Amino acid sequence: MPNQVEEFNAYRLKMNDKILADNNKVIKRIFNLDTNAFKEGHLDVKTKELLGLVASTVLRCDDCVKYHLETCFKEGISKEEVMETLSIATLIGGTIVIPHLRKAYEFWEELELIKNEE
Fold first, then answer.
1. What CATH number belongs to 4-117?
2. What is the pLDDT of residues 1-11, one digit of tens each?
3. Is this model's pTM higher than 0.90 or not?
4. What is the pLDDT of residue 1?
C-alpha cells in the first residue's frame, strides 16, 4: 500500500506531465522559473527551501508544504530546523495555520519512517 509521500509524488508527477504536455508557454515558463528560483544562488538551497516552507505554510498550500518538506528532508535539514521554521510560519500565519502544521508534522514523520525502513 502506498504511503502519503508516494501518493503525493505519483500524483504530482502525473499531473505535471499532463499539464506540461499541453505545451502552454506561460505555464512552462512558470514551472521553469520555480525550478530555477530554488537553485543555489546568493542564498543556499537550504535557506531557499526553508523560506519556501514558511511562505507555503502561511499561504496554507498543503501541496507546497509537502514539496518543500520533502526537499528539506533530502537536503539534510534536521527536524529541529524544520520545526523552528514551522513555528515562525505559525506565528506569522496565525492560528489558522495550525491544521497545516499538523499535516506538515505528519508528513515529516512519514519521511522519517520511509528513511528508517530503507
1. 1.20.1290.10
2. 579 999 999 99
3. yes
4. 59
Short-list 26, 74, 28, CA closest to 49: 74
Whole-number mean pLDDT of the chain?
96
C-alpha distances in angstroms, 29 versus 10, 25, 37, 94? 22, 6, 12, 33
Residue 27 CB: number of other CB atoms within 10 A?
A: 13
* Amino acid present at 79: K
The set of cell numbers assigned to 41 is 544562488
Length of the chain counted residue by residue: 118
State whether the Cα torsion 74-6-56-19 is positive or negative: positive
Q: Is 85 helix (H, G, I), strand (E, B) or coil?
A: helix
